[in-house]
Amino acid sequence: MTETFRALLIEDQGGKPVAAFRDLTRDALPDHDVLVEVAYSTLNYKDGLAITGKGRIARRLPMVAGIDIAGTVVESRSDRWQPGDKVIVNGWGLSETEWGGYSRFQRLKPEWLTRLPEQFSLQDAMAIGTAGYTAALCVDALEDWGAIRPGGAEVLVTGAAGGVGSTAISLLSAKGYTVTAATGRPETHDYLAGLGATGFLDRATLAEKGGALQKERWAGAVDSVGSTTLANVLAQINYGGAVAACGLAGGFDLPATVMPHILRGVALLGIDSVMAPQAKRDRAWATLAAHLDKAHLASIARVEPMSKLPELAADIVAGQIRGRVIIDIGA
């Protein structure tokens, strides 16, 4: 195929990863079995690191960035997928070891694709994206552990104004849980209250080193921050509670002790969205379809053209993005 289309490609320039728009042909794409026309992708923190070069996300170059895809199957050598099927792809190493979503077309392995739930449009799916799908994995894990129950003790969500936090608050409140949002931006309180948060905690109170065991406050928590914040959250979880940890925006270290785990039976549930098996993915998307208030998507997300990705990437790395950013690949 000689027809060209636009993609955001990360290439090696003088030993450094540099992102720039390039014109590609379908022949340049990986030789996988399903060709998808990409309608939308998203902007995640990891995407921001990859595009700005502030993090070595791409493990091989050149690399098409973008860890999310929502689109339509165009060609398929797999019996599982037919032209016209609406599909989602989250994770699976996209933009790290496999070419990702910032491209009008992409070739993908059949096992990476998830069928779009009928409750959502392709744009809805990217308003949710990896961040929202990860939030659903967190909620499912906390419920499976038995740490939280509707009407019981409060559930804490850190990084509340981000993509994971926003969706977690919406899901938890819809399921009847009492949610406290930890954020450092008071101007987001009305937005978070609209999603269902009933209490607020200044994130600065979690950012300084605290005691190994602190006053019990939370039945469970969804944490996307890591580091000292996660250590303090663990120290404040009620007996038998749990924290679903899925991020490291505050750092990948964990300056904690075993005290909450061996004296209060607190569980640290690691949540991986990249290589999660299909059964967990299907369940997470079913949770979203059943409980995510679609009216919240409009307040959680905004649509931006692919042409603005370089400046948007700088914004998300600087902590200046609220909620979700949907990337219109055709714009």
From TrEMBL:
Residues 14-327 form the Enoyl reductase (ER) domain. It holds the Pfam family ADH_zinc_N. InterPro entries: Acrylyl-CoA_reductase_AcuI (IPR014188), ADH-like_C (IPR013149), ADH-like_N (IPR013154), ER (IPR020843), GroES-like_sf (IPR011032), NAD(P)-bd_dom_sf (IPR036291), Zn-ADH-like_protein (IPR051397). It comes from the Bacteria. Signal peptide: none annotated. Keywords: Plasmid. SMART domains: PKS_ER. NCBIfam families: oxido_YhdH. PANTHER family: ACRYLYL-COA REDUCTASE ACUI-RELATED, SHORT-CHAIN DEHYDROGENASE/REDUCTASE. This is Oxidoreductase. It comes from Paracoccus methylovorus. The lineage of its organism: Bacteria, Pseudomonadati, Pseudomonadota, Alphaproteobacteria, Rhodobacterales.
